[in-house]
Amino acid sequence: MRRHFLFHEKWRKEKMEKQRYYISTAIAYTSGKPHIGNTYEVVLADAIARFKRQQGYDVYFQTGTDEHGQKIELKAEEAGVTPKEFVDNVSGEIKRIWDLMNTSYDKFIRTTDKDHEEQVKKIFKKMYAKGDIYKGHYEGMYCTPCESFFTESQLVDGKCPDCGRPCVPAKEEAYFFKMSKYADRLIDYINTHPDFIQPESRKNEMMNNFLLPGLQDLCVSRTSFKWGIPVDFDPKHVVYVWLDALTNYITGIGYDCDGNSSDKFNKYWPADLHLIGKDIIRFHTIYWPIFLMSLDLPLPKQVFGHPWLLQGDGKMSKSKGNVIYADELVEFFGVDAVRYFVLHEMPFENDGVITWELMVERLNSDLANTLGNLVNRTISMSNKYFNGVVENKNVTEPVDDDLKNFILQVPKNVSAKMDKLRVADAITEVFSLFKRCNKYIDETMPWALAKDETKQDRLATVLYNLVEGICIGASLLKSFMPRTTERILVQLNANERSLEEMDQFGLYPSGNRVTDKPEILFARLDLKEVLEKVEKLHPKKEEPKEEVKEEKAEDVIDIEAKPEITFDDFEKLQFQVGEIIACEEVKKSRKLLCSQVKIGSQVRQIVSGIKAHYSAEEMVGKKVMVVTNLKPAKLAGILSEGMILCAEDADGNLSLMVPEKEMPAGAEIC
């Protein structure tokens, strides 16, 4: 009987404990100051971590910096400082920006931390003793910025397939990890854990382009530079970047190779979510799980490869001169406006775009008008008509029920979106609440009620409903715009609502008094003035007119005209936007790639003769123009259900035809 009681008592205590949630970002490389695209990731992770806390989870949120490698050694030499001095400076700058963006991380790890370095040495030695690491030599093409070796066949136009920069021949003694030893086990894990790699398109890319064709052994040490963690038993080698960097996710929470791991590690591992950029998903979903298998540790529950935040003219890079920094944006718009923008403008799978013009538009419409004006009008009317006292007189009309039902549904919608990591959709749901409150003002017309002596109780009820709705909306906003939540609730003289309390309407204390000095949450900005300031910050480099004219004169091709067709002939063709979700080389063919193309709700297989111009990996994620009503045909024995359109220059080089603006898969080209 006593044993039965103790069992149930233990079960009861476990139920009372908070669920644990461990989230990490990729650690930022300390080669230079992070731009807004890099900063987006830590803001996204912060929004997820904050919402999990609102849901009642015991959250551990880790971020930090990756500080070893040849690139750092070279940059430090150029700057005339030691590598440690260089990374101390850059890591401090990264941490400053993470703090500026009000991110609520629990740990900021550095790979130069002594405890991390000691564990990496032990991990390397353990893997070597187990036979998973062996000594050999590497010969291939090396990309210094990416710190990666590639075979000739992996290069794109002779350049690095990841960053597009030139590669140089390199040969050196190295230790290698036997990736193939664990490949089948990883394939089985991915197949039996469908949520492990998200979004789905990233999983297809990893399986089709890397795992199924067969993994090569991975170089895990270097001898051509010294700035790294030395291999204990062979000190001329330093541990190569990925084995060093990826292990931060376990060393940061107290993993010990000798079996003396901390309570924190035992509590939080395996991680619930590794949040990383889509460009490094291969390292996190292939190399990292295999390293963990070698250490006999459970795999993280999910790896999410988020898309990129692009400048209006493409991916941000210092060489292009199109970099935007978070602290610059904060100077113009404020922290929460920048947080709102990067979270709201990033789709779940596709790249988002940031421009100064779009930032101003969002600030003026969504933040100043939809939210700021709503709060200001509500407080001002409460002061004007009732001396700031907000009282529920319960004089209701059917429009009130419609408002209440809408508002009470929003927290459920937000939770559903956040559980699926659809953060942009979640913040849109919150703003739908504020838009509904604005509509309620138009429906009830408080200014008209104020003119009628007999409608004073109805007017009081309307204003109460508005204040209550804003309180719920402001509390929901906390994960995304925490300081704005505080500012709203202070002005309303209200407490933050928990998610559990958001299934009730009417918790705002009747008779409470709002502030008599409402503040402007977001001031509207003049686009012309903003762009003039930006021009001073980043003067545009104009190309000489002569060069432009010469370029235009050369950049034309005349081709032999085909017979004219009628409009009816043209109407028979159907063109649509397709999104390539997977792609692989056609075996025994020098020209063909086989792509899985999402068109609307369907996925079609299309074979294209473009292998000489695009790698299979490069194709994945692209939006392309497709002829969708061609009769299916077989190419090299493979069924092709359409045609991907390309342009060809005089030298036979091909370029995919892609939409200029973001378009959904299936959009008609007309």
What does this structure look like?
Is required not only for elongation of protein synthesis but also for the initiation of all mRNA translation through initiator tRNA(fMet) aminoacylation. Homodimer. Belongs to the class-I aminoacyl-tRNA synthetase family. MetG type 2A subfamily. Strands 1, 2, 3, 4, 8, 12 and 13 form a seven-stranded parallel β-sheet that branches. Helix 14 (356-386) runs parallel beside helix 16 (423-444) and helix 14 (356-386) packs across helix 20 (527-537). The protein starts with a helix and ends with a strand. It contains 23 helices and 27 strands. It is of the alpha/beta class and 670 residues long. 44% of the residues lie in helices and 18% in strands.
In short:
The chain is α/β, with parallel strands linked by helices and 670 residues long.
Count of runs of 4 or more consecutive helical residues: 23
Mean pLDDT: 89
- The rounded distance between the terminal residues' Cα atoms is 77 Å
Strand content: 15-25%
Helix content: 40-55%
Largest sheet: 7 strands, parallel
Number of strands: 27
Quaternary structure of the protein: single chain
Question: What structural class do the secondary elements suggest?
Answer: alpha/beta
Shape label: globular
Low-confidence sequence ranges = 1-15, 543-554
Using only CA atoms, what is the Rg? 29 Å
Protein name: Methionine--tRNA ligase
Motif ('KMSKS' region): 315-319
EC number: 6.1.1.10
InterPro entries: Anticodon_Met (IPR041872), Met-tRNA-synth_bsu_C (IPR004495), Met-tRNA_synth (IPR014758), Met-tRNA_synth_2 (IPR023457), Methionyl/Leucyl_tRNA_Synth (IPR015413), MetRS_core (IPR033911), NA-bd_OB-fold (IPR012340), Rossmann-like_a/b/a_fold (IPR014729)
